[in-house]
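> forwarded from #structure-qc
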């Protein structure tokens, strides 16, 4: 009989500082290791890193990382920010950067690597972009 862990949530508010994405990755790694989810660390770091770096680069205000268990071995990672603009892939629009474009590939990777993903407008303004990975649903 597998042990059923109680649901948990962690939240980290981040500043417009170039050290913030690294701090988010360290925190994420610590949480997943502590909850015996080390197998998700690599993918989770890739996804969180891309979303957090985007919030740093493409928005002006504070932003943050949320991490919660949504089922046995499954997690939802969310990154909120204060900009209402939804990046194209999260609006359901395909994104095809030109072959010689320098950027515009990060969210293509996110959409390919996540098991599920979506966006929610926040009542106080801004948005939350989320991805899920691992395990089965609750
Ligand atoms: N949190 C965000 N808020 C508003 N717009 C965003 C946000 N994240 C991404 N975008 C927009 O979506 C575009 C695509 O993001 P994507 O991460 O794919 O590419 P990039 O950040 O420009 O380059 P890179 O390939 O280095 O990640 C960005 O150029 C930006 O215009
Ligand atoms: Mg990016």
């Amino acid at each position: 009989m597998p042990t059923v862990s109680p649901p948990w949530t962690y939240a980290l508010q981040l500043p417009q500082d170039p050290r913030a994405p690294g701090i988010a990755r360290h925190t994420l790694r610590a949480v997943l290791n502590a909850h015996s989810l080390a197998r998700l660390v690599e993918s989770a770091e890739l996804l969180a890193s891309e979303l957090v770096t985007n919030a740093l680069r493409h928005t002006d205000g504070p932003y943050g990382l949320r991490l919660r268990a949504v089922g046995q071995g499954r997690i939802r990672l969310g990154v909120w920010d204060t900009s209402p603009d939804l990046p194209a892939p999260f609006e359901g629009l395909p994104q095809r950067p030109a072959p010689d474009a320098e950027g515009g590939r990060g969210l293509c990777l996110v959409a390919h690597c996540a098991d599920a993903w979506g966006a929610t407008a926040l009542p106080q303004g801004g948005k939350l972009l989320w991805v899920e990975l691992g395990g089965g649903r609750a």
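QC bot note: Residues 54-55, 57-59, 81, 83, 85, 87, 103-107 surround adenosine-5'-triphosphate (ligand 1) (CB under 6 Å). The chain has one domain: 9-93+103-133.
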